[in-house]
Write the structure tokens for this entry.
Amino acid sequence: MKATLYEALGIPQAASDEEVRAALRRLIRKYYAKTRDGQGNVEEALRFINHASRILSDPGQRQRYDQELAVTTEATTEQDHHQTARPTTQRADLHSSRSHGWLLRL
């Protein structure tokens, strides 16, 4: 599961602003083409693209997102370490308030 904005966009966390914009443009082209071809509802995908753009285009919001991501990743790593008896534990979804089921199909 692609749990972070960076994973969903296919870019590293240290990506430059230009790399972020290029990844967003790629997604927009991909889903715009599906809309044009009548391949169904892509409203949720476009909402995600707007959400990612708002966060990753603003330096202050991106810094807060990166800090939250670091805290969540650290907490998940500690939790995984303490639960070694379980075969697998899933990583926390940073977008739990916004269900992005289509991300699994990217």
Summary: Residues 88-106 have pLDDT under 50 and may be disordered. The chain has one domain: 5-80+93-105. The CA atoms of residues 24 and 50 lie 9 Å apart. Residues 59-82 form the longest helix (24 residues).
